[in-house]
Amino acid sequence: AQSVTQLDSQVPVFEEAPVELRCNYSSSVSVYLFWYVQYPNQGLQLLLKYLSGSTLVESINGFEAEFNKSQTSFHLRKPSVHISDTAEYFCAVSDRRNTDKLIFGTGTRLQVFP
Amino acid sequence: GAVVSQHPSWVICKSGTSVKIECRSLDFQATTMFWYRQFPKQSLMLMATSNEGSKATYEQGVEKDKFLINHASLTLSTLTVTSAHPEDSSFYICSARLAGGGELFFGEGSRLTVL
Hints:
Shape of chain A: globular
Strand content of chain B: over 45%
Order of helices and strands of chain A: EEEEEEEEEEEE
Largest interface: A-B, 18 and 24 residues
Number of helices of chain A: 0
Distance between the termini of chain B: 37 Å
Oligomer: heterodimer
Shape of chain B: globular
Helix content of chain B: under 10%
Number of strands of chain A: 12
Number of helices of chain B: 0
Largest sheet of chain A: 6 strands, mixed
């Protein structure tokens, strides 16, 4: 079985500041890792994912996440946030053998202030 | 990207009544749809996997007679909460996968409040 921990329920930052949203997971099998973003009144959208290969993955809007197997982490980072990045961010994992079942963290609300 | 829409986005009902929530894939066909439930300050929990034309597969601990799922077409799955009680109040979210596999697309969620 897998589990996901997002320790920070809320992260307030000022615009143009760097941010890191933490995600740790536990699993007895190999996993795929995901970050989803949910903007107000919208469904979850895939932000980025790690399947294999390079442990550093990037999104088209400047976010990046690094898979760290030894620390079982997949933290999300952005060097300079915008007001428009305000949203709920969910980390998720799935068993590589069963990608239908996503296990989600409790989410982190990123609030960017001007 | 592909769009998944849920209806209604929020609903209030009396205890003992049944409520139906629809999940539609608007611009693609989805052989598989998934239903999740999210309680306040908790993570999304998979309730069931809905396959077009066959019975849904429920996760352990989810009552299939309580949460009826119907996936009658490649673009529509419905979740009916039967004889709803206040403890069923939650945020229900669906997702759909493109036929042939690939990325999951999520609906915007439906908030159910049972009085």
